[in-house]
Amino acid sequence: MRWKVDAIQGRAIQCRSIQARISQNRSTDFFLLKGIVAMKRIVQKGASGIVWRLLCFCALILQSSLLLGDSSATAHYLANEGVMVVHGDTKVVFDPLFNNDYGRYQLLPENMKQALYSGEAPYNDIDAVFVSHSHQDHFSPLDMLKLMRLRQGIVLYAPAQAVDELKASAPDDAIFKRVTGLQLAYGDKPVVYKANDLIIEAVYIPHSGWPERMLDVQNIAFRITLQNSTTVLHLGDADTKDAHYEGDAEYWNEREIDMAFPPYWYFSSKNGQHVLENRLRPGHAVGIHVPTAMPAKVQDRPEDFRDRDLFTTPGEIRVIDKH
Ligand SMILES: [Zn+2]
After folding, report:
1. What are phi and psi of 318, to 5 degrees?
2. All residues with CB under 5 Å from ion ligand 1
């Protein structure tokens, strides 16, 4: 009867994974969670095949209505600072393709990279890609060239430095009709573009290490609004000092951010916490660029990160609540 034991354990594991994903959903109905737990109990007591299939079907319907409902938006973690944000049929991706983990960071799993290239769900019909800066743990020119050639519906917004690297590999490629290079410098006013169902706002925030290091790196913070409804902020490797935000105080006040993706060091730095709480004030913040050494168990993490939300596992999803 080994197969039966395996099957029951398998069902319990499936149920646990559904429960774990739903527990990450901040707008989850408490009763739904109770229902899943009750369902798991029934399974552990040995429900018949048909009952099991029926229960799983109901759970999947409930789960997909939560994750894919018309008014809901979701954030999907790729790796390092790679994030896809979806609202209805509008999809944008930040920092998706890179090849260097510097021995510390999460690389993009090969199957996810291939799914991006082939436009396989959930990475089908991506509208826009944003690159924060041209460091190798955020951007690979050759991989980006390949993506832009394969998926011709994508428009790309990237710092001029990253676009120069793309051009060095293929100066006259037709993809450049869909590429916007941002020639921004420190202190420049934010710029705004509109494309399809997107409001694209970009401002230069110096790379972490300012003013001692990395002064020559164009790091762009993208504030993106999808379908006039969901606003997210991707900070790249932004430095944490308030001075970088102070000059554009009005810009940071004029639009509410539903979800921000700060590099994880914002959570452990006094300056970063100040900027999050007083300048950006997002509805929710999920830390990115998290080293792979960060313990999986929350209680094992350094104190600064225990009550913070971090993206650590490629493929994990957050529902974006309206602010
Ligand atoms: Zn960097």
Report:
1. -120, 140
2. 135, 237
Per-position pLDDT tens, the chain of length 323: 333 333 333 333 333 333 333 334 443 333 343 444 444 454 445 445 555 555 544 454 445 445 444 568 999 999 999 999 999 999 999 999 999 999 999 999 999 999 999 999 999 999 999 999 999 999 999 999 999 999 999 999 999 999 999 999 999 999 999 999 999 999 999 999 998 799 999 999 999 999 988 889 999 999 999 999 999 999 999 999 999 999 999 999 999 999 999 999 999 999 999 999 999 999 999 999 999 999 999 999 999 999 999 999 999 999 999 86
Residue 41 and residue 51: Cα distance in Å, rounded?
13
| Residues 122, 119: Cα–Cα separation, whole Å | 8
Q: For residue 159, how far is its CA from the centre of ligand 1 (angstroms)? A: 13
Q: How far is the CA of 7 from the centre of ligand 1 (A)?
A: 46
CATH number of the domain at 73-320, please? Answer: 3.60.15.10
Annotated domain spans of the chain: 2-68, 73-320
- Centre of ligand 1 to C-alpha 132, Å, is 9
Which residue, 217, 224, 304, is CA-closest to 260? 224
pTM of the full structure: 0.80
